[in-house]
Amino acid sequence: MEAVAGTLLSGVVLGGMYGLVALGLTLQYGIARIMNLAYGEFLVAACFAALWLFTAAGVSPLLGLLLIVPAAFLLNLLVYRIFLAPLVRRAASPAALETDSILATFGLLFVVQGAMLAAFGGAYQNYSVLAVPVPLLGAVVPANRLVALLFAVAIGGALFLWLARTRAGTALRGVAVNPVAAQLVGIDVRRAAALAFAAGGALVAAGGVLVSMFLTFNAAMGVVFTMKALVVVIMGGVGNLLGCLVAGLLLGLAETAVAAWVDPGLTLAATYALFLGVLIARPAGLFGRVAR
Amino acid sequence: MTTTTIARRSALAGATAALCAPALARGQGAPAAIRIGYAISKTGPNAGGASITVIPNYEMWVRDVNAAGGICSGAMRIPLQVVEYDDRSNSEDCVRAVERLVNQDRADFILAPWGTALNLAVGPILNRAGYPQLAHTAVTERAPELARRWPNSFWLLGTGSQAANGLVELLKTQREAGRINDAVAMVAVADGFGIDLANGMRGALQRAGFRLAYDRSYPIGTQDMTPILAEAARQGADTFIACSYPPDTLAITEQARISGFNPKVFYTGVGTAFPLFRQRFGDNASGIMGIGGWNADSPKVQDYLRRHRDFAGREPDRWASSICYASLEMLQQAIERAGGPNRAAVIRELQTGSFDTVIGEVKLENNLLTRLWLTGQWQEGEFYGVAPSSMPGARQPVLPKPAWRAA
Question: Is A124's CB within 8 Å of B407's CB?
């Protein structure tokens, strides 16, 4: 019984990390309609920023969030204004924007990766923060993973309230549902999209800082995170924050359960089986609404 | 991505300069430089390993040789000139770069790429073009067969079953002394070297009469080891073996510490020998075994460690780094004995000669390095070789592993 509780708990903790890592992409892809292939690179860049603050200045990553997250917001706003806004202006249809943004951010991926390689080299990096055992429900969880889970829930919850209850949030949801109609009711779509993209960038930076406390990373690892985030976002329903968290939790639970009770070799198979199953049952994702 | 370093001749010729006439006395017809080419993974998934184990060694060797005026060739010194490509961790790119080094850059010698897959990929070209291939970061069961098929290739890191036998010999001794029971829990990453090492372990453990109480593999990239470790801990095994890659090696050790899983023998795979490992775990690294090891008490190793730290600003790993550097020393000595960049003569010399290197005297048997450290253990902040016990400088393993301390 204790073993079952332990397995479920570590599944929830892993799932929380997946949800956290994917939150930003659901904003960028769901609202700003930018399929950001450089997403994982931005996450790894935040890992490096946290590492650098920690080793060079002794700043704890949790304090580092206060610096890195606003910086990431501004940086992503610039990226959107300078680099992506022209694509948005010339795009004839959402599908065209998707193709263009995939190509453009594919290039961006190499730029960010190259900058990280030049600055930090290609070696594996890892540092230790809050690596203390916390006994919980008969299992032992590392404090850093637990903190990441709590942050994921807190950020997800705050964002959900912001989108559901505030005027700006409602405008963003309007853009997510139908950019053309949103314009007709007086929403500045370009501004809303830039805001969503930058907020997504700030979220991915928060995710990067938090996972850097317990994952080993190097400059070449971005694509792993992009893939995982994409699976979570599409499974949860593009643009849906709650769906994102639920899908992340489901994946984490499925992987942990399979690793503990079936065979650790089948965790990837379990991930994609679950993904396929959800897509067959609900093509728009768990919480997505079918377009048209 | 090409960088060409035109060699400088330095007045600071080292001790070996006494053996050669000054570089100015260059004779008629001698080449102005020896062209060294290599393709290495500066980007992509291999970059993590290549930038720790190979790149600093290549760069340091070239700088040191050129600082001494170059490689001795008969009565003079010939400086090195370097052509370097990034293979992006991709076999096709690596093969293309090596073909270019052969055909277009006309490199005199080509240094090996990082890892088993890329060394296998460039083997046929280097063989056809008659270049020596000193594979210092390739571990493959097929090494003896490849050495026969490509007599120009030299395999310096042993095989997975060799590494497994090294550990199991040690475990056997410990079991006979009554320090551990006969149950073993093993996990392995489901990828090239992890599979090779795990297969080697299974065979060796079975032959030695150990019982595999838990034997599972996990996909590459897995960093959440909690459920696997919880299952492994439940088996009552005194020995835990992880045939792991660097990120999982760190994750397994960290999560074992946090969950208080402390078997008497704790063995992890690639990455245990990295300086990052000690930096990450400090005193908690103590007692952990892993693949590789070196004789840290040897003055040559200490000198190498100091020079590497001065040059690269960080320490080398304790498995393949010193072997990589030794392969360069072997190449240099073979060139000197062959009297210049004569590839056929250099290959003959590598096959038969014996060389004075940082890892001691090296003489290859059938193109294989057979005397190398198979298991190391962190003791007093160093990763000492503990198996095979016949190696000079072998330390006694510390068992049981000390308890984890709070970080």
Answer: no
For residue A265, give the CATH number of its domain. 1.10.3470
Confidence label for B28 from pLDDT (cuts 50, 70 and 90): low
- How is residue B292 written in tokens? 């590789």
Chain A residues close to B254, C-beta within 8 Å:
128, 131, 142, 214
Q: How far is CA B215 from CA A178, B195, B211, B225, B387, in A?
A: 52, 12, 10, 14, 23
Q: Which of B216, B223, B226 sits opposite A263 (nearest CB)?
A: B216
Q: Which residue among A113, A257, A265 sits closest to B218, beta carbon to beta carbon?
A: A265
pLDDT tens digits for range B97-131: 999 999 999 999 999 999 999 999 999 999 999 99
Query: What letter represents residue B62's amino acid?
Result: V
Interface mutation vs chain A, best among B195, B224, B259, B277, most A CBs within 10 Å: B224
Determine whether the interchain pair B259/A140 forms a contact, defined as Cβ–Cβ distance below 8 Å: yes
**Bridge partners of residue B285, in order along the sequence:** none
Q: Reduce the DSSP state of residue B227 to 3 states and report it.
A: helix
Å between B53 CA and nearest CA of chain A: 10
C-alpha to C-alpha distance for A117 and A111, rounded to whole angstroms:
10
Give the ranges where B208-245 is alpha helix by DSSP (H).
Answer: 226-233
Nearest CA to B168 out of B265, B245, B234, B249 is that of: B265
Number of domains in chain A: 1
Partner residue facing A216 (CB), from B217, B223, B228: B223
Domain that residue A60 falls in: 2-281
Using the Cβ of A113 and the Cβ atoms of chain B, whether some distance falls under 8 Å is answered with yes
Domain annotation for chain B: domains and CATH numbers: 3-159+320-363 (3.40.50.2300), 160-296+374-387 (3.40.50.2300)
pLDDT at B8 over 50: no
Judging contacts by C-beta atoms under 8 Å, the chain B residues touching residue A142 are: 254-255, 258
Cβ contact (<8 Å) for B260 and A133?
A: yes
A144 has a chain B CB within 8 A of its CB: no
- d(CA A13, nearest CA chain B) in Å: 10
Q: CA–CA separation, B95 vs B403, rounded Å?
A: 48
Tokens of B311: 């040059």
Strands B211-218 and B183-189: parallel
Buried b (16+ CB within 10 A) or exposed e, B191-208: ebbbebbbbbbbebbeee
In a domain, A96, yes or no: yes
ipTM of the complex: 0.74
CA distance A73 to chain B (A): 27
Flag whether A173 is in a domain: yes
Q: Is residue A290 situated within a structural domain?
A: no
B257-310 pLDDT, tens per residue?
988 899 999 999 999 999 999 988 999 999 999 999 999 999 999 999 999 999
pLDDT at B2: 44
